């Protein structure tokens, strides 16, 4: 996701964590305001293009070698690269968070990666191999040329929300409040309980593979409903947008709710 998505996911999570979880992560992140999660949600993107941070560039995605729209599916052994993917990274940084022998700065960094990667795994094109997660597919967005990955990362959510594009934190905060209400008492009330069914802190790979397979299923149904070649050069801000927007809302809501549950499990184990 772009900044808007990651920050919204972090604010949703802050709305659902328990009190002791909030205190634990505010301490670890050195920020005792309500922005303690949102403030670090895009850190992993800010370092991935630096010389120091390059080791983490493949950690944001998993390239599912499926065949949309006829076959979708992720396989950890087949799809996770030797130097890592979003699933192995969630496993690695979750276990670092649980390791009290590590230095606080290491667990601080691990927290920032986990907060970001729980977000990315819910973006369908971060769980897809075709054209490097759609980066190599040119499409049109309101008459201008964009790549498909960017449209799913940012353009659709930005159009949905409107508002002043420069006020990313304000827009994300507002979006998070709306989605929090939908989870607590609106359209996600019933299904949200199942979003955190079967979370296994001792098996982050199995847990995040469930998340990955859910995201990847949308590659067949909503990203490439007629296959990857059919979308090249198409204008996506019309009918395509109308169908994609509810998927993005759902995935962002789920990511935030699951991040809260995951952080609750970690804070409980550590206290
Ligand atoms: N980004 C960046 N520097 C670049 C290219 C992109 O900081 N040279 C940022 C912009 C988006 C984010 O990365 O917010 C997208 O990352 P991803 O697509 O990994 O989610
Ligand atoms: N990306 C992806 N799958 C890939 C390669 C990249 O999901 N196989 C994501 C990571 C960034 C965005 O696409 O969010 C742009 O990546 P890059 O700057 O590496 O081209
Ligand atoms: Zn990312």
Written account of the structure:
The chain is an all-alpha fold. It has twelve helices and two strands. Strand 1 and strand 2 form a beta hairpin. Helix 1 crosses helix 6 and helix 2 crosses helix 12. The longest helix has 32 residues, at 239-270. It is globular. The two termini are 32 Å apart. The mean pLDDT is 97. It binds 2'-deoxycytidine-5'-monophosphate (DCM) (2 copies) and zinc ion.
Quick recap:
By secondary structure, the chain is mainly α.
Work out the helix count. 12
The percent of residues in helical segments reads 55-70%
Let me know the largest β-sheet: 2 strands, antiparallel
* Bound chemical compounds: 2'-deoxycytidine-5'-monophosphate, zinc ion
> Which band does the percent of strand residues land in?
under 5%
- Shape, principal axes of CA atoms: globular
Give the beta-strand count.
2
List low-confidence stretches: none
Mean pLDDT: 97
* Class from helix and strand fractions: mainly alpha
Radius of gyration: 18 Å
Q: What's the order of the H and E elements?
A: HHHHHHHEEHHHHH
Strand order of the largest sheet: 1-2
Offer a few descriptive terms:
binds 2'-deoxycytidine-5'-monophosphate; 271 residues; 12 helices; 2 strands; single chain; mainly alpha
Layout of secondary structure:
Blueprint: H1 3-16, H2 19-29, H3 43-47, H4 76-79, H5 86-97, H6 104-120, H7 131-134, E1 138-141, E2 144-147, H8 148-161, H9 168-185, H10 192-195, H11 204-223, H12 239-270
The structure holds 2'-deoxycytidine-5'-monophosphate (2 copies) and zinc ion (ZN).
One 2'-deoxycytidine-5'-monophosphate binds at residues 57, 60-61, 63, 125-126, 132-133, 135, 149.
């Amino acid at each position: 996701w772009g900044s808007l998505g990651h920050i919204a996911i972090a604010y949703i999570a802050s709305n659902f964590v328990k009190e002791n979880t909030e205190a634990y992560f505010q301490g670890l992140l050195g920020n005792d305001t309500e922005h303690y999660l949102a403030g670090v949600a895009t850190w992993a993107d800010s370092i991935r293009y630096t010389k120091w941070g390059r080791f983490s560039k493949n950690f944001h995605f998993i390239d599912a070698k499926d065949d949309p729209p006829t076959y979708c599916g992720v396989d950890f052994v087949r799809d996770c690269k030797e130097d890592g993917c979003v699933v192995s990274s969630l496993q690695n940084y979750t276990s670092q968070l649980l390791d009290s022998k590590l230095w606080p700065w290491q667990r601080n960094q691990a927290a920032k990666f986990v907060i970001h990667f729980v977000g990315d795994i819910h973006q369908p094109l971060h769980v897809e191999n075709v054209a490097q997660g759609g980066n190599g597919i040119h499409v049109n967005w309101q008459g201008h040329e964009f790549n498909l990955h960017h449209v799913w990362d940012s353009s659709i959510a930005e159009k949905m929300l409107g508002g002043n594009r420069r006020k990313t934190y304000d827009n994300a905060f507002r979006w998070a409040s709306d989605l929090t209400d939908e989870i607590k008492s609106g359209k996600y009330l019933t299904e949200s309980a199942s979003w955190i069914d079967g979370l296994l802190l001792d098996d982050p790979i199995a847990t995040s593979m469930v998340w990955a397979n859910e995201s990847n299923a949308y590659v067949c149904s909503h990203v490439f409903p007629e296959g990857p070649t059919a979308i090249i050069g198409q204008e996506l801000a019309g009918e395509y947008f109308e169908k994609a927007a509810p998927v993005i809302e759902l995935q962002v809501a789920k990511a935030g709710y699951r991040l809260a549950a995951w952080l609750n499990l970690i804070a409980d184990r550590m206290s």
